[in-house]
Amino acid sequence: MQKGLIFINSQSLPKQQQKEDGPNDECISDKISHLKISLSSTLDHFFPLAGRLAIEKHEDDNTISVYINCNFEGVQFIHATAEISAEDILSATFVPQSIIDSLIPFNGVLNYEGQSHPLLSVQVTEMSDGALFIGCSANHSVCDGASIWHFINSWSAISRSSGDHTSYLPPVFERWFIKETDCPIRLPFSFAEKFSAVRNTRNAEVPPLGCLVERCFGFTKPSIAKLKARALELNSEAKRSREISSLQALLAHVWTAVIRARFCLTNSHDENRQILIALFMNNRTKLIPPLPEAYFGNSLIGGDILVKEGVLLAKGFAFLAASLNEVVNSHNYEKSRSFFESWVEKPFIPSSGDENGIMDIMLLARSSQWFNKYGNDFGWGRPSAVKTGRNGKYVYGITTVSRGPVEGSIDIEICLPVEVFKAMEDDAEFMEALSC
Questions:
Q1: Which of 170, 146, 121 has the alpha carbon at shortest distance from 2?
Q2: Region Disordered: what ranges (predicted)?
């Protein structure tokens, strides 16, 4: 996972660190030192991030188990400078991935490499206009989005309060397993062989994004409300039950526009072409008993829809919104338990896309508008923007959901070919929601 925060008004230090006189480079030096100290203090509580992944071999049945070795080897901290400004990123229509690559560490590093790589890497970059970019890359097999933002929120709180450890919610490390699960979970020995083979042979260069670029669309609270009202109006059953959430309506609006644009650009139309639409959902509240809010680890489950392109185009945005709602409503403990049990019985390693790294089309939503991304004040104000790194962006239609900078707004970052974005700009129905 790669998260980045841009701080434009970063010239001022926390009050406890301010000096009456002194050059700017001394202020920056103090600020970097303060960030290191507060990061170290935060890791006292989130100590698994300072460890490494380890593999234990079980000779009795030729299996392995993977665990976090909390050996306190530490995290990586990089202080860098860049000849780019915050405006170079914020003013661009398409996010310049080559620029973001230089600001967030561990591009292309895979989770299993946490055996030798730190589980967390932080890069603080001074930009040419005085802005600061804080980039964090965390091993996704150790924690999910909820947990890494919990860590970043806690780090900023401890930094802002100059080490006051009462200003954050302590993480919970108690593990959750299905009853009667034999621990540790044992995996085929071939997994270790596969890890070693890939680690020794894979190209060290960061793979290209191919034809994909990323663009961020911002939607205001009023425009989202209008989309939800329209989805409810067009779905009589949903209207009666008041179902279909704001996010479901918003994703349906964006993704239907993507399919319309793609269809218009395709020379050979195939209405029977299958489109995979998927959501990553937080599993914490669905387990029995529910996991605590501060559970640190992974608790995600996926839900998907397989739909024919012609059906989606004919039935439109309201149909997709209702379908997304159905997927979310079907997410329950029984489904989670069934997935966990089947995985333990027959483990598999998820991969990113096809052999070329990019699937034909898969609209996949990740992250959440509920994560507190804009509340991270390290002592010089809140961030002006939130960005994500390239990892995980090898899929056509990968969609990152974020809370917008204004209360109630939502930002949708999506990876698509440039020509699809240009076709969406000519789509009056799509653009109307952006202008509200």
A1: 121
A2: 1-24
